[in-house]
Amino acid sequence: PRRAWTRPQPTACARVREGGGSPSPSRAGEEAMIHLVIPGPPVGKARARIVYRERLGKYVGFTPEKTRTAEEEIGWIAKGAGCEMMEGPLRLTVRAYYPIPRSWPKWRQKEAEADKPSQRPTVKPDLDNVVKLVKDALTGIAWKDDAQIVDLIAHKYYGTTPRMIIDVDKS
């Protein structure tokens, strides 16, 4: 059964214009040119699937629905924030906040909430797959080609609110 996809509300993000907007912690003392907050647990880019279609008599490749939906959501949020295509070399900062497991004891949950180094997430999805998904989702929206990204900063954290925070600035 195919679930109907609904466009996310653009209130979950902010476009930072020159001279205004909220500061981004991507680099101390500077503001990000694009600052997006994507609600929900981080999603990694899944491999394309290839299946044989007897009706067509050939192999057909497709992107898994979860990956496609996550890319569309990031794209809609970026468009709703008024993102414009950026030129030149760029710096991408991705912070992925994973939900704190409820099965953990309270003391460990508090440590994870306080961002203790001993309580950083080592769970799936892998950070490189999360970054791949973000890069593919914003290609054609925030930049022409993801080859423009020359600086990449990515972190995994536990948080009470699962989300991804994406900052893009000139490098």
What does this structure look like?
With 171 residues, the chain is an alpha+beta fold. Helix content is 21%, strand content 28%. It has a 5-stranded mixed sheet, covered by helices on one side. Strands 3-4 form a two-stranded antiparallel ribbon. It is globular. The N and C termini lie far apart (44 Å). The relative contact order is 0.26.
Helix and strand layout, with pairings?
Elements: E1 13-15, E2 34-39, E3 49-53, E4 58-62, H1 65-80, E5 90-99, H2 106-113, H3 127-138, E6 149-159, E7 163-170
Parallel strand pairs: 5-6
Antiparallel strand pairs: 1-2, 2-7, 3-4, 5-7
Helix pairs in contact: 1-3
What string, H for helix and E for strand, traces the elements in order?
Answer: EEEEHEHHEE
> Strand content of the residues, in percent?
25-35%
Number of strands: 7
Tally of alpha and pi helices: 3
Mean pLDDT: 84
Return Rg in Å: 18 Å
Largest beta-sheet characterization: 5 strands, mixed
Which regions are unreliable across 5 or more consecutive residues at pLDDT < 50?
5-26
Give the class from helix and strand content and strand pairing.
alpha+beta
How far is the N terminus from the C terminus? 44 Å
Question: What is the strand arrangement across the widest sheet?
Answer: 1-2-7-5-6
Helix content: 10-25%
Shape: globular
